[in-house]
Amino acid sequence: MSNTGMNMRGKITFYEEKNFQGRSYECMNDCSDMSSSLSRSQSCRVESGCFMVYDRNNYMGNQYFMRRGEYSDCMSMMGMRDCIKSCRMIPMHRGQFRMKIYEKENFGGQSHEMMEDCDNVMDRYRMNECQSCNVMDGHWLMYEQPQFRGKMMYMRPGEYRNFRDMGMSGQRFMSMRRITDSC
């Protein structure tokens, strides 16, 4: 049984300018388009919970994981090309984590079920890449490089037949990490 519904509320405050200057917008849930609240967002404070922020509307584009802390210059700290345009609160998950990864799109090729973090898909499973997955339990971050480096993508429970539909064309993932209570 998944306890995803038992989540702690998160709170993030976005600021138009670097160093927490300018107008601000407080957010406690998902926001697909921040332009109605702020003209841009270049810094933020995460007071509680964990969030994914995106450099395009509708949870598209480059993604960045934010945990409790202060981010005075999002563009330089995270290598963003543009300001934050949308954000998604990550519910806290209590219970087991399970994800099945596939080497090819549409659940093809080799597959392996994971319940723990994997710092290198090639070393652990002898898979060249991961191009589709099924997240059964928990919330995960997938990274384009081994050792949890490079571009990342947030995965919540569901089937992901290919990553192009999520705006990650040509992306291959080489390491995966569970998002745990230690946010």
From TrEMBL:
Residue ranges occupied by any Beta/gamma crystallin 'Greek key' domain in the UniProt entry: 10-48, 49-91, 138-180
SMART domains: XTALbg
UniProt GO MF annotations: structural constituent of eye lens
Gene3D superfamilies in alphabetical order: Crystallins (2.60.20.10)
Single GO biological process annotation from the record: visual perception
Keyword line: Eye lens protein, Repeat
Family: Belongs to the beta/gamma-crystallin family.
PANTHER family on file: BETA/GAMMA CRYSTALLIN (PTHR11818), GAMMA-CRYSTALLIN D (PTHR11818:SF119)
Described purpose of this protein according to its UniProt entry: Crystallins are the dominant structural components of the vertebrate eye lens.
Protein name: Gamma-crystallin M2-like isoform X1
Species, as recorded: Gymnodraco acuticeps (Antarctic dragonfish)
